[in-house]
Write a structure and sequence with these properties.
heterodimer; A: alpha+beta; Rossmann fold; OB fold (Dihydrolipoamide Acetyltransferase, E2P); 2 domains; 10 helices; B: mainly alpha; MetI-like fold
Chain lengths: 351, 291
């Protein structure tokens, strides 16, 4: 279990117009599983490489249990990275691959064999020790790579896009395995992904990074319900955005006045933006709502099994609403409906 | 389908004919001569006398076995050292640094250089009247150029080994650079994060990854240096003499009776090289099957 503090980390590469990593600070508690989330090229892997020591930061510090590790060489940091393409040594069998770090430490072969067997059992592959990497499926290779990293008993485990090379069903399996092992061993863990769903399902907290800058570091739920800006909201599937002008105790918009239960209204600028997730919008042919309701027209209806998605237009503003298909009202294209934006579900942020 | 087959056969026939007539024809003629068949001097009998003479007779056996030992020594040492030198050069040059292209160019320049030119270069630099001897004498490190050790035309084949190292390390270098560049540095970075120090990364990661290519290239270089003539002819001594030089001298001997021995010697060299090539193909095929 290790506490990690990343402090004002900066990294520039020649030929780039902006820093690859721009003044990023993240604090990770003992045994937490953190996702570095962002689109390709946003600096996620650069951060991992600086933590392992494969890259040197231009500024800032990295602390493990309050001790700076910048002067510690990579091989002595005990920060182990699992690469995206697993990188099992092709000339070694599974046992040799998993036992690699212990061999480098000069451990007794008997101890190595015992630990290798324990790790292979942990990743639920106890009988493949003699196989070569080419004889393994993608999922098996991923588990062996994980076992090889865990056997080193790392202070911090880093995973680079751990699920991106796996099929959909293997992803679910691997996701469960990673979380269960991480909680069982209580190892502090950080992984990189560009997939927000993967980040939400795996991580205790998410650090959202755009263009080398940390946008927000919070629990997954917060990214859905209380995004920090439009980019963050869009990255998490946000589609409904309403431009607002702040007034004393309400917000004016092109579709009418909007009220919100939000407590931090004083922190908002005059010009701000409201967002609401499609599944939180309510629609009805009858007006059964008390506040934040508007008259709109259904532009399209898309049935997708458990849910049905409606595109609604209110005074030239397009909104999307998603309702459970079961027990749905008979609402069709071109129908006029009352649209309710519940004030406890609407989230207002600065532009 | 039939038309396609005919087209393929017709298109490969001319080069095949050239190979069969010129290459295998020459070998066949040499083989016949090595078996004692020389109608020009009235010898029609087929026998293994020339092989026996080369391998066991009092006159030639000592020359052959010392020559074979020298051949093996020169080929093995030069191949090994060229491979080691190229490996370290490739590891040093593969990373991006100022002047990388120039270093790369200088190292690779040896590849198109003719062996003859390299041999002359070795004489200019490493002989007792060469640049190095004169420089050391000028710097008073040695009393006179004559005190410089005999590195060219010496009985241990040092000059020949130097020439092959100079020339063949470029071949190794180009192969290793392409292997290292295709591998990238991820394996080493991974090993480093798993606690491997610099030496362990070299021993347990780089070496096993480049070894298959290095070994294949070594067999090619070994086979070449084992059968090549011009460098040992220029940089070697009369005794012990490397086998290709010995074979050529048999061939040039005005006594046509010695021609059979020369051909027998050439066939023995060819056989050894062929065994190496077959071994190389077996090895690569085994690796492909394994992959």
């Amino acid at each position: 279990m290790t506490e990690v503090n990343i402090v004002n980390l900066i990294k520039n590469f020649s030929g780039m117009t902006r820093p690859a990593v721009d003044n990023i600070s993240i604090n990770i508690r003992n045994g937490e599983l953190i996702a570095l989330l962002g689109p390709s090229g946003c600096g996620k892997t650069t951060i991992l490489k600086m933590i392992t020591g494969l890259l040197t930061p231009d500024n800032g510090d990295i602390l493990l249990d309050k001790q700076s590790i910048l002067s510690v060489p990579t091989e002595k940091r005990n920060v182990v990275m699992v690469f995206q393409n697993y990188l099992l040594f092709p000339y070694m069998n599974v046992n040799e691959n998993v036992g690699f770090s212990l061999k480098m430490k000069g451990d007794d072969p008997k101890i190595i064999n015992k630990r290798v067997q324990e790790m292979l059992e942990l990743v639920k592959l106890p009988d493949i020790g003699e196989r070569r990497p080419k004889q393994l499926s993608g999922g098996q290779q991923q588990r062996v790579a994980l076992a090889r990293a865990l056997i080193a008993n790392p202070r911090l485990l880093l995973l680079d896009e751990p699920l991106s090379n796996l099929d959909a069903h293997l992803r679910d399996e691997m996701r469960e395995l990673i979380t269960s092992i991480q909680k069982k061993l209580e190892v502090t863990c950080m992984f990189v992904t560009h997939d927000q769903e993967e980040a939400v399902l795996l991580a205790d907290k998410i650090a959202l990074i755009f263009d080398g800058k940390l946008q927000n570091f919070a629990e997954p739920k917060e990214f859905y319900e209380k995004p920090i800006n439009v980019s963050a909201a869009k990255f998490f599937g946000g589609v409904n955005f309403i431009e607002l002008n702040k007034n004393a105790n309400y917000f004016h918009s092109s579709i009418g006045n909007i009220t919100s239960n939000q407590t931090n209204i004083n922190e908002l600028n005059t010009k701000c933006i409201a967002t609401i997730r499609p599944e939180n919008i309510k629609i009805s042919k009858e007006n059964i709502y008390q506040d934040n309701f508007f008259k709109g027209k259904i532009k399209s209806v898309i049935f997708s099994g458990t849910h049905t998605r409606y595109k609604i237009v209110i005074n030239n503003l397009n909104l999307e609403c998603s309702l459970q298909s079961l027990g749905i009202q008979n609402i069709k294209k071109e129908d006029e409906v009352f649209v309710n934006l519940p004030k406890d579900k609407i989230w207002i942020m600065n532009e | 389908m039939g038309g396609d087959k005919t087209k393929i056969i017709l298109s490969i026939t001319p080069p095949l004919l050239i190979i069969i007539l010129l290459f295998y024809g020459g070998i066949f003629y040499g083989l016949v001569q090595s078996l004692g068949y020389q109608p020009a001097i009235g010898k029609y009998e087929i026998n293994l006398d020339a092989y026996y003479n080369i391998l066991f007779s009092e006159r030639y056996a000592k020359l052959f076995w010392t020559g074979l030992a020298l051949n093996l020594w020169v080929s093995f040492v030069s191949t090994f050292l060229a491979a080691v030198l190229a490996l370290f050069a490739a590891l040093a040059i593969r990373k991006t640094f100022f002047g990388k292209t120039v270093c790369n160019f200088i190292y690779s320049l040896n590849l198109p250089m003719p062996h003859l030119v390299v041999a002359v270069g070795i004489i200019f630099v490493f002989s007792q009247s060469g640049l190095l001897a004169r420089m050391l004498a000028q710097l008073n490190i040695i009393a006179s150029p004559g005190d410089f050790p005999v590195l060219v035309k010496d009985k241990y084949g040092v000059g020949i080994i130097l020439a092959y190292i100079w020339k063949e390390s470029a071949f190794f270098f180009i192969i290793l650079m392409s292997v290292l560049q295709s591998l990238g540095e991820n394996f080493e970075e991974l090993a480093q994060s798993l606690g491997a120090n610099r030496w362990q990364r070299f021993r347990y990661v780089i070496l096993p990854l480049v070894m298959p290519s290095l070994f294949s290239a070594s067999i090619i270089v070994f086979a070449f240096s084992f059968g090549a003539y011009e460098v040992p002819a220029l940089l070697g001594v009369i005794y012990p003499q490397m086998l290709p030089v010995m074979a050529f001298e048999f061939f040039l001997n005005p006594d046509l009776n010695a021609r059979s021995e020369g051909m027998a010697l050439s066939i023995i060299i060819a056989l050894i090289v062929m065994i190496l090539v077959i071994f190389y193909f077996w090895l690569t095929q085994t690796r492909i099957r394994k992959d």
